[in-house]
Amino acid sequence: MELVDIGANLGHESFHDDRERVIARAREAGVAHIVVTGASELESVTALDVARTVPGVLFSTAGVHPHHAKEWHPGTAKALECLAAEPEVVAIGETGLDFNRDFSPRPDQERAFEAHLELAAGLGMPVFLHERDAHERFLAIVARWRDRLSRAVVHCFTGDEAALDAYVDLDLHVGVTGWICDERRGLHLRDIIARVPLHRLMIETDAPYLLPRDLVPKPKSRRNEPMHLPHILRAVAGAVGCEPDTLAQSTTETARRFFGLPNPG
Hints:
Blueprint: E1 3-8, H1 19-28, E2 31-36, H2 41-51, E3 58-62, H3 76-84, E4 89-98, H4 106-123, E5 127-132, H5 135-145, E6 152-154, H6 161-169, E7 173-176, H7 188-192, E8 201-203, H8 229-240, H9 244-259
Parallel strand pairs: 1-2, 2-3, 3-4, 4-5, 5-6, 6-7, 7-8
Helix pairs in contact: 2-3, 8-9
């Protein structure tokens, strides 16, 4: 069984001391590829550097998370475009809207978001999207750009049925994390995630965040790792009503097509 973790923040400081061992554990667990998320201009450079440490296994994205949208400056688009020219960079993002915490003013988030979409459209690259508590504005912006975008994934989907249907109707891909394992706030996903066509469904850890709460035995550390992706796979497989091996093959093939990843076979 080969899996693809479409979103892991391996450039995060919590991985500085043992990143090689984290990657080794993931590969032992069957994770064939990891896409390392770029969340700011600097972190996108770091993500690329990390990706280059294991060629053909690690890849990265280049973008500015909405939390950092206030940092967007006239040279940011050019910097991301330069990063996107590197073969390890397989998507533009993380980008989108986050009205849950508003770490950046909403007008700044929207300007940066549209700049990412313009860049992705011009380069013909897929987009790695973030949305939290901003569905209506997010949907309106994506809908305006959708015909010019090659592919787009709403990563770490946590929304409701109406939001999910709207994203499916726009021909977006959907990424599911360990949120689906959270009995406090994520179990609703088990009732609706089957509404996503299998060829548009992918899985991710969003490590070091969102450690699945139902892991047994419970890890001593709250840090999530890509090695937990098979656990998320089993939860999603149960929700969509198929065997884990079937879902593994489907999500892996989908991720490879979406990001243009190599097929070792």
